[in-house]
Amino acid sequence: MDLNVLIAIGAGIAVVTGLGAGIGIGIATSGFLQAISRQPEASGKMTPMFFVGVALAESTAIYGLVISILLITRLG
Asked: Which of 39, 60, 67, 73 is the one with CA 20 to 30 A from 28?
């Protein structure tokens, strides 16, 4: 198998990390909204933790994008 084919497959797999990040952020948002609807007075304590979790989940997608771009630039 040619090395360019393997690089292209690796770049495609790296982009799939965006799917996991999207699912994770959706689940986190769902849990956050359920928690706020049950105890609205606790929303001030939960909001910063929610944004930290969303930022961590989004960073995995950004890392996957960066790796896929690095792999695509290796194609020649």
From this structure: 67
